[in-house]
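Name: F-box domain-containing protein
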Amino acid sequence: MLKIPNLYNIIYRTKFNLGILLPLRFGDAVKVLGDIGKPGGMKESDRVARRWEDLDIDILVKIFQSFDIYQLTSGIAQVCSSWRMACCDPLLWRTLDLSMMKSNFIKIPLEPYVYVDARSDKTLTRLLKTSLSLSQGNIMTLIFHFNLYVSDDQLTYTAERCPHLRRLVMPAWNRIKKTGICKAIRMWKDLESLTMPSISNPPYLLEEIANNCKNFSELKVMGPFDNFFAATIIMYLPNIRVLSLRCSMLVKDTLISILDDLQNLEVLNISHCLLIEIPPPPAPRRIMRELDQSILEKASRLREFLTCMNDSCSMCQRTRNDEGLMRWYKYEEGVWKADEGCRSWYSEVGKGPRKKETGGLESPMDTVSVVARVGNSISIVDLFVPNMNLGLYDMLD
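Structure predicted for F-box domain-containing protein:
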């Protein structure tokens, strides 16, 4: 159960924000909580007149918005009916972000190639049950860590209780079978955006999305992206508007197919990709260091074409070192969620390097190239930006 002094401290820290929204009611709330939290600071008559459940719901919701998922599900909803009502407010549950939670696992040589500790599985199940009960079907964005290995049963349970899901970020599918993901997709009629790993047999999934998710428009693939995957997208999702292949291995012919055949595509992100050209034999394949004019011409019709092939770029170096299959566990926590195609990214350009939480400046800065048409000519504009942990689920409103 949440301790009173802790709640008092949280209210004290957020009083300025609350004061802007609720200037007339906040003072009384702080006084009530302050008196309760201070030994001997409350009269007997006050104990009868003022009760926890009388605290304004709007204030409680604002306070609970500063809690992480572990605090929200720690039992504060059981304090009283008012607190449970505040804990179930839709403002708290638009997004269920589990990107800080990882499975306790070991790698094994046979499918599903990971073994997850039973206690770790129980922790995730318990967290999902509490969160989904409090959310009351209001979750629209669901984010899993790339080392959080969800089972079929956990995915089905989640899908049944998130009927209005629009964005799913789930990079790890090792324990999810074909039947499990297809069952979930059939329940997510409103799904618009998906971040997924590279899989060897994409047709069954993309066909399911095409048949059930009529508003689907955004796809991010984390891992090698081949001709077969591209052809499957072209066949089943020809109206897709946003495609991100950031930090993947990509063959030049595959890129040309995307530009030629996805006529409704508006945003394409190939930043930090390992771009491979495969000439006729016996010539060996080679890594492309820059885009040729034919690709730039084809990409000029896009609203945004994001590229980065800079030898000095830290992310480009990492993609090459990992041979197009990123070992995200080796790098900063959260960098796997980054995507330069986010609309919110533009608000950061021109502000200079941001400070990390540790207080240091991020360096080196990445270069993102945007192809632009000026009259009849085509040019590439280089934008120097810091590394940012922004996800594809923020790309479009």
